Amino acid sequence: MNKRVLTGLVVVFSLLAAFLAAEPWIPSVQGAAQGIVCTVKSSTNCPTNPLGVSTLAGATSVVVNVAVQNSPSLAGFEIIVKTNNSIISPTTVSVTGSVVPGASNGILGECINNSGNACTTLDGPGIVHLVVQGSGSTVAPTTGLLFSITYSITVNTPSTGAPIVFQTGCAISSNGNSCVNILTISA
Q: 176 in helix, strand or coil?
């Protein structure tokens, strides 16, 4: 690895570490004070049960949204989503239409199927890990799209489909150990 690439990596990881240490990460999955974060197919209304994607329709891909509902003012997030990679496999993520201001220029880390620049020991096949810091903050209460994931369909499944859930095992979380962290802004 040449010196310029190594220096660039050190700078990126130093900035990420400084951001995570300096900002008050308040995770949320299902807490009234933090709002709700969920996976949905076409809206921002969070269902009570985890989303299951049926692949019987003959399609080759499906888009799943990660949404937030009734959150305090927010300026970024770190979320890890997982599914059964033998049924549907994540291929891309998009922050187009995200409620986070400047999200497209604020992607600090992205790992898909254990490939990318934000991969950790919690990542692997079937997992999307995205870290975003916006250029500003939303107005509370915030409801809307955080990001979208495109999955390729690898096998047809029964109508119950492939569940899409949040990874567990994260040290920073107020909802058990789910890997959903929302950067909120206090008034």
A: coil
What residue segments make up the domains of the chain, in order of their start?
3-184
Angular region, 70: left φ>0, alpha ψ -120 to 50, beta rest: left
Alpha-carbon span 19 to 176, nearest angstrom: 23
For residue 141, whether the previous peptide bond is cis, meaning omega lies within 30 degrees of 0, is yes
3 state DSSP class of 161: coil
Q: Supply the pLDDT for residue 62.
A: 87
Per DSSP, the three-state class of 10 is helix
The answer to whether the Cα torsion of 173, 63, 40, 32 is positive or negative is: positive
pLDDT for 91 beyond 90: yes
Answer for the pair 61, 41: CB distance below 8 angstroms, yes or no: no
Contacting residues for 187 by C-beta, under 8 A, at least 6 apart? 73
Fold of 3-184: Immunoglobulin-like (2.60.40)
Collapsing DSSP states into helix, strand and coil, what is residue 110?
strand
Among 15-19, 31-35, 54-58, 114-118, where is mean pLDDT lowest?
15-19
Can you give the pTM of this predicted structure?
0.78
What is the per-residue pLDDT for 41? 81
* Alpha-carbon distances, residue 4 vs 8, 11, 12, 17, 109 (angstroms): 6, 11, 12, 20, 20
